[in-house]
Amino acid sequence: MVVLEGEVYLFELSCICMSEFVNLLTEERQGILYLTINREEKMNAMNLDTLEELRQVFDEVMDNKAIKGVILTGAGEKAFVAGADITEIASLNEVNARKFAESGQEIFARIENCHKPVIAVTNGYTLGGGCELAMACHMRIATANAQFGQPEVNLGIIPGYGGTQRLTLLVGRGKANELMMTGDRIGAEEAKTLGLVNHILPTKEEAIAAAEEILEKIKSKAPLAIGMVVDCVNAVFLEENGYQTEANSFARCVKSGDYKEGTSAFLEKRKPVFRGE
Ligand code: COA
Predict the structure, then answer these.
(1) How far away, in angstroms, is 152 Cα from ligand 1 center?
(2) Which residues are CB-contacts of 14 (< 8 A; sequence separation ≥ 6)?
């Protein structure tokens, strides 16, 4: 493979690593990484290997300047992800259950903290760990057949990959309690009314096209500022003072070349050319 520049070299390396995944499909087109959970015969249930592969992908997404955004979906038409793999959950004990939850939380936090936009296209069952995975993404676009739920109580457990926190923040205490205590599934329309999803499109193709449209808009914006939006929105989840994080991040933006370029371009009545520095 011919390598011309450092940045291209990095990108090509990433492609080679990503092609080795067993449970994920990856494809990069025009700066968008299309990431598909690929265990269709198991409703894309996430086993520990899938989680590890997700961790590796998001490490690469962070480092790879060629990737501007990610669309995450599930293989086939029936499921985004129908939860963590119950065959693995069934043999947990008190000690490894804590590790199980903490490592999942850590991987989902990488997604949530990624400075590039990550959009979940939830195409069908989005349950348990699947709902938690979707909630760790920055936005969710559902297909009309999508169903959401946290059915862990049916297995004698609770959401362990951050779902108790993110669901409460997204839909409010009352509804989060109801969903997690009953294990009920809700359809795409109700999920949208609750603020769990941003948009609903009839099919997976249309949902992906809607996600592409959003990412295209974001691509033209200042990359550092997009990263700061991620940090500030996530600061709402932290116990530290989110307003302080906002002020610190605002000041970091003002130190950047993109800030100078954005303000100058406006005043000079031209389009800005952002460099992410
Ligand atoms: N973990 C492991 N395997 C799962 C799974 C999960 N979370 N969800 C589905 N599967 C498997 C099924 O066991 C089945 O495997 P098999 O063909 O080897 O028997 C296969 O995926 C297809 O699922 P099936 O139940 O036959 O499909 P369905 O259309 O009747 O029902 C669901 C689909 C999603 C409603 C149902 O599979 C389900 O309730 N899954 C569990 C959801 C859950 O509790 N998630 C939270 C886990 S923490």
Answers:
(1) 13
(2) 60, 63, 64, 67
Q: Are the C-beta atoms of residues 116 and 69 closer than 8 Å to each other?
A: yes
Chain centroid to Cα 92, Å, comes to: 26
> What is the separation, in whole angstroms, between the first and last Cα of the chain?
29
Q: Assign 232 to helix, strand or coil.
A: helix
C-alpha dist (Å) from residue 57 to 36, 38, 54, 107, 116: 11, 14, 5, 10, 13
Give the DSSP per-residue string, 118-129. Answer: EEEEE-SEEETH
- Ligand 1 centroid to Cα of residue 88, in Å, is 13
Choosing from 43, 80, 185 the residue with most ligand 1 atoms within 8 A of its CB, the one to mutate for a pocket test is 43
Domain-wise residue ranges, the chain: 2-219, 223-267
Q: How far is the CA of 43 from the centre of ligand 1 (A)?
A: 6
Cβ of 158 closer than 6 Å to ligand 1, yes or no, is no
Q: What is the pLDDT along the chain (277 residues), one digit of tens a residue?
A: 223 333 333 334 445 356 689 999 999 999 999 999 999 999 999 999 999 999 999 999 999 999 999 999 999 999 999 999 999 988 888 878 888 988 999 999 999 999 999 999 999 999 999 999 999 999 999 999 999 999 998 988 988 998 988 999 999 999 999 999 999 999 999 999 999 999 999 999 999 999 999 999 999 999 999 999 999 999 887 766 666 667 777 778 778 899 889 889 888 999 999 998 8
Q: Enter the tokens of residue 54.
A: 């997700």
pTM of the predicted model as reported, rounded to 2 decimal places: 0.90
Contact 131 CB / ligand 1 (< 6 Å): no
Q: How many residues does the chain have?
A: 277
2-219 has CATH 3.40.50.300 classification? no
